[in-house]
Specification:
By secondary structure, the chain is mostly helical. The longest helix has 26 residues. It folds into 2 domains: 184 residues, Orthogonal Bundle (Citrate Synthase, domain 1); 103 residues, Cytochrome P450-Terp, domain 2 (Cytochrome p450-Terp, domain 2). The model has no long low-confidence stretch (mean pLDDT 94). It is globular and about 70 Å long. Helix 10 packs across helix 16 and helix 11 packs across helix 15. A 3-stranded antiparallel sheet has the order 1-2-3. Strand 2 and strand 3 form a beta hairpin. The chain has 16 helices and 3 strands.
């Protein structure tokens, strides 16, 4: 009798490829994009430069970044048929469903759609980075009753996103913080959505199909919806003075506190530390709602760290602090996960392009534990 193999549920601890794009050090709480620490990039770089870094695995020169930014700006506008779909569905459908369908439709108007060479995939990556941001902004604008706001090619990527979302030029401060949020979410190694995209690409499908797969995976609340759930919890708590009672009762009832714990990080998520600094700055400057949410978040974080952080290895992750920051920017909760997708697209594309260089169809094994040679009974005798 052959012994059953060891089953790695959820593929936990299984390596399927090599990559120099991202290093997640979950034990020490460190994150690197192409060798640069997330703290260094958040303090010195910006989302557009990070997009170039991830796709090319090196930082650009000034002239290269200028050309890259112009390429991004030139690809922002959406095909009329995609705008029509957004206008028809945005007010009545799940926003991630709208995004998934719109991205799939982009293939119809992309001249490189069926070309799977690396130069073609690079061109498609730039288009997708630009157009996914436009789709998300258009969805929010249409849902708010403003309709589709045409992009402004004179603006940077994040400035234009906020302009298309709100229909007015954003504050520099808002552009800066949202740029940091996009940068922090741009890449995170072989997470579920990235792996999903790679699996699709490994069949030699195409970039649009692979990214559509990744978006469908990100939609799941175990991956892309934790920041929504964390903000909903804060709103349920209501007031900062209610935080301790809520958290203690939740812990006593073994209820999951959204935004805490991570599959990889066994210590404080370095991205959460960066966002926490922003929250601390908001305590005295934001409006009453945001100050309230901020004080709840910081109180809950302190209690959770003191109670179970060190003893159980359950620490705040990037999702926990995101909700109050997005709220301060005037971004509604239903756009949180689509914005995650608009941030993560350079990471998805970078991994897909890299994997295809030495592609091998991803086809894991499944151990069969059922019976064999069962007798077939005709239907009239069952």
């Amino acid at each position: 009798m052959v012994d059953a193999p060891e089953i790695k549920h959820g593929l936990e601890g299984v390596y399927f490829t090599e990559s120099g794009i991202c290093k997640v050090d979950g034990i020490n709480g460190r994150l690197y994009y192409c060798g640069y620490s997330i703290e260094t990039l958040a303090g010195n770089s910006n989302f557009e430069e990070v997009c170039y870094l991830l796709l090319n695995e090196r930082l650009p020169s000034a002239s290269e970044l200028s050309v890259f930014r112009k390429s991004l700006a030139s690809e922002r506008d959406l095909p009329d048929e995609v705008v029509m779909v957004i206008e028809k569905l945005a007010k009545s459908s799940d926003e991630m469903d709208v995004l998934r369908s719109a991205v799939s439709m982009l293939a119809f108007s992309d001249k490189d759609a069926a070309d799977d060479t690396e130069p073609s995939n690079m061109r498609k990556s730039i288009r997708l980075i630009s157009k996914i941001a436009s789709i998300v902004a258009a969805t929010g604008s249409v849902r708010a009753g403003r309709g589709y706001v045409r992009p402004d090619p004179s603006m940077g990527h994040i400035e234009n996103f906020l302009y298309m979302l709100n229909g007015s030029k954003p504050k520099d401060e808002h552009v800066k913080i949202l740029d940091t949020m996009f940068l922090l979410h741009a890449e995170h190694s072989s997470n579920a959505s990235t792996f999903s995209g790679i699996v699709t690409a490994s069949t030699l499908s195409d970039m649009h199909s692979a990214v559509t797969s990744a978006i469908g995976t990100l939609k799941g609340p175990l991956h892309g919806g934790a920041d929504e759930a964390a903000l909903q919890m804060m709103r349920e708590i209501g007031r900062p003075e209610h935080t301790v009672k809520y958290i203690e009762e939740a812990l006593a009832g073994k209820k999951k506190i959204m935004g805490f714990g991570h599959r990889v990080y066994k210590t404080y998520d370095p991205r959460a530390r960066i966002i926490k600094k922003r929250l601390e700055e908001l305590q005295g400057s934001a409006d009453e709602e945001v100050r309230n949410l901020t004080n709840i978040a910081l109180a809950a974080e302190k209690l959770m760290v003191d109670r179970i952080g060190k003893s159980h290895g359950i620490w705040p992750n990037v999702d926990f602090f995101s909700g109050p920051v997005y709220t301060d920017l005037g971004i509604d909760i239903y756009l949180f996960t689509p914005i995650f997708a608009a941030s993560r697209i350079p990471g998805w594309c970078a991994h897909i392009i890299q994997y295809l260089r030495e592609n091998k169809l991803i086809r894991p094994l499944e151990y069969y534990n059922g019976t064999l040679d069962r007798e077939y009974v005709p239907i009239d005798k069952r």
